[in-house]
Amino acid sequence: MKTKEINKAFCAISGVFYCKNTNWAERLFDQCRAEEKSHRGFGHDFNKYHPNAVSIADCARLFAVHRIAEYLTGAKFPTGQDYLHTQTSCFIAAGMVDEFGDELREALAGFDLAELAQLDYVQFVGKAGEMAIA
């Protein structure tokens, strides 16, 4: 799957929240973006080892879509005891699916949820020295 399809899936997810008080898709995206930015900044040489990685924003959409699809396909929701060891974006995505699951499932009807749930970050940032897909 390419970033273009992931972006379409994210737009479908975001569309669920256009007429709601809070656009949880945008909040999820912001959290995923912050987590990816932090991950890339952890080691000062991320770009050296992953020169063909997709953008931070593309990775944020990938994680947002991936997490929503995982929970829609039955992945176990994180619990309170997971809080210290799980990225905050997982809790946001789980809450979105718990409260708006039917609407999200309907919005993603044209997508293969199993394929979205299996998205692999490494394919988009590449292993050290390898090309990433885009």
Major sheet attributes: none
> Quick one: how many beta strands?
0
Average of the residue pLDDT scores: 90
* Strand/helix succession: HHHHHHH
Instruction: Determine the fraction of residues in helical runs and give it as a percent range.
Output: 55-70%
Number of helices: 7
Low-pLDDT parts are none
| Amount of beta strand | under 5%
Beginning-to-end CA distance, first to last residue: 9 Å
Total of domains:
1
**Radius of gyration (Å):** 15 Å
- 3D shape: globular
Structural class: mainly alpha
Annotation keywords:
134 residues; mainly alpha
Explained architecture:
- The protein has one domain.
- The chain is 62% helix and 0% strand.
- It contains seven helices and no strands.
- Helix 1 packs across helix 4 (56-72) and helix 4 (56-72) crosses helix 5.
- The N and C termini lie close together (9 Å).
